[in-house]
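Researcher: Batch entry, complex prediction.
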Amino acid sequence: MLSATFKIHQGRLFLLTEGREIEAHIKSCFPWSEDKQFFSIRDSEDNELVLLESLDDLDPENRSIFEEFWKMSNFIIRITSVNHVEEDVELRHFDVETNIGKKLFQTKLEDWPDIMDDGRILIKDLSGDLFLIEDLESMDRKSLKLLEPYIA
Amino acid sequence: MKTELFFRQFLGQEEKLPQWIRESINDKIILYSFVDLDSQYESNQQWLVIGRDNLYIVGKSIEREIKLAEIASIKESDSLSSTSLTFIKAHDLPPLLRVNSTLRQKPMLSQIKFYLEEIVSKNSHALWDKLDADSQYQKMITQKVVEAQSSGKVEDRQTLGRLLTYLKPYRKDLAWGACGAFGATLIGLVPPYVSGKVIDHVVKPFQDGKLDLAEAMKIGWILIATLAVSYAMKELFMWIRLRKMSILGEKVAYDLRIELYSHLQTLGLDFFAKKHSGSIITRVSSDTDRIWDFIAFGIVEVSVSIMMLTSLAIVLITLNPLLGLTMTIPVPLLLISIYFHGERMKRIFIRCWRKWSDVTSVLSDTIPGIQVVKAFNQEEREKKRFHQKLDRVTNEFFNVHLSWTKFWPKLMLGIHAITVLTWSLAFPKLVSSDPTLTAGVFVSFLLYMTMFSQPIEIIGQVTRMLNRAISSAYRIFEILDAQPSIFESKSPIVLSDIKGNIEFKNVFYSYDGVRTVLKNMSFSVKQGEMIGLVGESGGGKSTITKLIARFYDVTNGQITIDGVDVKEIETSSLKKSIGMVLQEPYLFHGSIAENIAYARPEASLKEIISASKDGNAHDFIMRLPFGYDTVIGERGHTLSGGERQRVSIARAILADPKILILDEATSAVDTETERKIQEALDRLAKGRTVFAVAHRLSTLQKADRLIVIKKGEIVESGTHQELLQLVDGEYAKLHHMQSELNAEFVKGE
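Model: Structure tokens for the complex:
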């Protein structure tokens, strides 16, 4: 078990360890290949405070706090359907529906969606925003047809 | 494209702060940002507005108002796909505010953070007052798209129209080419017509006994001669067309290449910093090639095809309305099927392209890194990886072939079906007691029918051809439209004998118009003085040297050389007076002698050797198999880092500049090489005004004066000894740190 405790205050995460309260944030060591293990708990200067190998190392209360904060800091836009994809000079335009509403974004023509080992598809737009397709099979036929050249 | 349309079509957010918010806020709006995520990371429609005195959070109304004076610090934190700003009043108090956004809004939020921090530290107010909040917001939000594509979607008509203006100087050639094309098309219609006439007016009357042999032979020979002449004329016109248009295409491509390359030479370093060199090279090479292809063949092929189809339809309907309509009505259907086939092929080509890029990425990984592959014994793994990627792309190539080989026979089957239909309609008219169709007309029909497929195919490909040409033209015009950031003064002053007295007067500089890299910098340097520029990375040392060389112009203030503003000095005389030796010297493909004489191609061989000796380069050059004639640079002999540097020093010595800039010239080389380079630099520096940037302070000990730069400001200035005596001084700290490292190194040995 980890000998430190977490607390969330005003939307900020704090690590209480050795009598000190340090503002912290979480970075996953393997954000795509292993999102349940190996988390780096870091201070505001981005120095590692603790390396958490597994969520099982946390007691239920700390685990719940950790997961609550992780959910926020692990924010990613999830595509639910695709309305339109268009190739343009140097750019590919996507018009998609997501968990946070309709989104328009662009990628470079030479940048392709990343198909992960578990079948999830990740698209990084020009701004660096990440758009995830978690379950391709659950998408409608039109979306699949529009995405087909980029993922088949 | 208009900003409003750009935001709506590409970004799906407002192009500026809504008017009602401006009216609700009773404050001068300095900056603002859209806030598209709420505290729970759900979709949000708020604005963060920075006024002169307050910060506002505005949703459907003004929801929060915080005095700027209350903000002590701002924390910016990024997660996978979001960014947050936390506004803090005091460390032990809850934050005043936290805003979350997607990364698209990050550049603007970072600007706001930077601005507020500047306000807190009371710096650079003058620069901020000039900013326009709307243009800042628009620039920050669109900059990634603009960098990738320059200015949004192509205005097709404008681009095409502009491309066609390049044909103007060659109107005569164009007229000849067009005449050739149209002449060949029209004459191409004659042989089938004449063939029909031969049958109807010679063969059949003769077989029916209505025409005697002599008359039949006479008419027959005339018609055969007409056929021969029309074929010859057609090929003559075709020759005129091909010759004129292909040469014309080359001329336009040549003009574009010359204009592009000349324009590139006028552009500032800021332009090249934003564009990948590969992308620029492609525009001068492949894109101009595509334009040639379009002008030489595209324009004419498409016009000729449209004309051919129209003429065929007119001729056929005139010859026999029923058969004519039978043959022409299905044509649009064929065109539509070609269009859909094109769309399908486009999707397959995208897959090919994507998978092919996987193959090339394996190659570009492993070929340069072959030493690592071999060192770790991973040849088999790499072979397997390559096989896998190649299998995937080869399967897509198979799909391409499966698709087109399936389509074209189907299309031809459609054309044949029209032929069969025409036959079945024509046959009863040919073979009847009262024939209403002559054999000759029918033969003409059959011959015309064979002319249908090619123009249909070309028109089917027109969209792709046009898109490729327009996108290439667009990419070329993007460069031609880029404005040089450095302009020659209207009445430039030629300084033929620059002494090298330099003065910075209250110089401010910002690369992006917002973040000030140099802040109110003033100093003067006398001719022949050696100045060492010291300080942390990113502090502004190299920027100072770039401003002296006028790669950029100051944002505020003035830089003078011998009392004359650098902006007023004729660029050529300024550049001749400045020499640079950089950390990573660039040598061109060519002989060593050519590289040394780059700035003075007229230099004698003796001068080249003398400069090389002074640059400590002569000895190693003479050990090379071909001495000064050894070809170096890309595809040439490989020199070590130290050797390249000594060639670049020899180049600078031969150029004999009055002002010399040494930017980390001795870093990244071993100690012995450093000693040789330093010797060469000492000789080079004699009698010149020198600015030397270096992290290794030992290399600056010969400097007459050291200027210590921190965050764009001069924090200390003096000789090595003077600065060492400043207790807690920046230079003393740096020197102490480096001395300790050296001592540890020696102890370790």
